[in-house]
Amino acid sequence: MIKRKKITKNLYLKEVSVKDVDYILKLRTDKSLSKYLNHTPKNKNKQIEWLNKYFVRRQKNEEFYLIFQINKKKIYKNLGFARIIKLNDSTFHFGGWILQKNTKPWIALECCLSIYEYAFNYLNYKKCLLWINLKNLDVIKYHKSLGAKYVNKDENEIYLKFNLNDYIKLKKKFKYYY
Questions:
Q1: pLDDT at 140
Q2: Distances in Å between the alpha carbon of 132 and those of 7, 47, 60, 93, 100?
Q3: Rounded distance, CA 116 to CA 82, Å?
Q4: How do residues 113-153 score in pLDDT, each as one tens digit?
């Protein structure tokens, strides 16, 4: 379990806990932030139930649900969260990514870099698969701009891949953030 770990220049990753349920619900039930994600009922008990099932998956190293934080004057401020889901021994899915409203563009970049850093260099995955709602054009464009490559698409989603070598190039390009 990750209590809190500094991953990039400014950001820390902290694993979610039941104490984060109100924060998770606030972002996941915000219609503008979550319009391309699976529906989350605005029900605290159901979210706690979901988190408890997550903790079982986490114990098996099948999934990691992480909150992005920044340290401002020794106070850790939440910025959003994302999940790393194990697909097999070498491949993960990066999804469920939500950032709070009005975050600066560098925060989105550093959050993405921190997920890749953690997944590739701490969890030792070799490849990331992304599946993104076809209507979520900004996120598709964003991941492609970072080097994700087209794999396929169906009537609802586009599938992209991003591997360890892509990340090594990205890390060199954005070395300022480490």
A1: 97
A2: 25, 23, 26, 11, 19
A3: 11
A4: 999 999 999 999 999 999 999 999 999 999 999 999 999 99
Q: Where are the beta strands (DSSP E) in 62-115?
A: 63-72, 75-86, 91-99
What secondary structure, in 3-state letters, does 101-166 show?
A: CCCCHHHHHHHHHHHHHHHHHHCCCCEEEEEEECCCHHHHHHHHHCCCEEEEECCCEEEEEEEHHH
φ/ψ of 72, rounded to 5, equals: -120, 110
78 vs 14: CA distance, rounded Å? 9
Return the axis-axis angle of helices 164-173 and 105-117, rounded to nearest 10°: 140
